[in-house]
Amino acid sequence: LKVPPPTVLDLDKRVSEGTQTRHYFENALLRKFGFVLDIEASDLYSDQIEVFYSYRRSPFKYSQWVHRSGVAFVQVVGGSQGFLFLTNRLMAPGKLGTSLK
């Protein structure tokens, strides 16, 4: 994206309790365009919570979002890098059907 997200000094006070404010605007933009949260970045969990994935040994560095159609994945890097975008090659054109509607 051309314009970086705005800096709001008291964003923690403006959002509802329990809402993550790190990458707040990036996450809102992804939700607006039909993405859903797939995996949260490991450093966004509280120290009291231990996260364990049976299929992966290393923690996730970036939060990963998947489009509701399944055709794309996005990781939120933040800062000047913004997003990492990857198309889902397992979703061939014949498999899409009505998933984009």
From TrEMBL:
The lineage of its organism: Eukaryota, Fungi, Dikarya, Basidiomycota, Agaricomycotina. It comes from the Eukaryota. InterPro entries: IML1. One of its GO terms (biological process) is positive regulation of autophagy. GO terms for molecular function: GTPase activator activity. GO terms for cellular component: GATOR1 complex. This is Uncharacterized protein.
